[in-house]
Amino acid sequence: MRDRGLLFSIRKGEVTKYGTVAYVHGIYEFQLTRMDKELAQMTGRYFDEAFSKAMLLSIPSFVRTIPVQESLDAKHTVATFEDAEHILNSQKVISVADFICRKEKTIIGEGCNKPTEVCFMFGSTGKYYIDQGLGRQIEAKEAIRLLTEAQKAGLVTQPGTSQNPGGMCNCCGDCCSVLRTLNLSDKPVEHVTSNYHVAVDSISCIGCEA
């Protein structure tokens, strides 16, 4: 079951421990190397019929959204807890994998041209990805380079909600199940977890919509 991506496992010395995992993040993402057209169509149908409704209830406790580490006003900075680079630099094990949501959509002809190798996993989850051939191990320096490229491409950086998250993805509204779910809501902001909110300077704003 572990080899089919239905269980999580971690090996410590001579002992291997196994544990159940959620559908997301877990069983769905673990199908990265097994994703084909049939599975892509089935997961898409599941999203439309049921999963998006369940996801909408759990997003606030599942991931948080952190802003790009840039500001028009240099006095405002991103706090360490919400600093994507700090998260990467603090990890002992980092793996990077292709974005399975984008792979699924690409297989059925609904993908986008955004970068694909943009999902980071840390610690025991990162080790699982490496051991199962789902991702490759990288150093923080390369992870930060990939993060920068992802943000330049307009992807949304979303780590887990915990202070020591098990992973961090860079997502798009075309393919990501979280962002697609939010787009189905009448008031997406009510379901987003973030310590930052956009504020418009009405005096300086010229309405350029940039």
Describe the structure.
The protein is an alpha+beta fold and 210 residues long. The protein has one domain. 33% of the residues lie in helices and 15% in strands. The chain has six helices and seven strands. It has helices at residues 37-62, 84-89, 100-107, 123-131, 140-152, 177-184, and strands at 8-12, 15-19, 94-98, 117-122, 136-137, 156-159, 167-171. The strands form two sheets. The protein has a five-stranded antiparallel sheet with strand order 5-3-4-7-6. A hairpin with a 2-residue loop joins strand 1 (8-12) and strand 2. Residues 72-80 have low confidence and may be disordered.
Short account of what is shown:
With 210 residues, this protein is of the alpha+beta class. 33% of the residues lie in helices and 15% in strands. A five-stranded antiparallel sheet has the order 5-3-4-7-6.
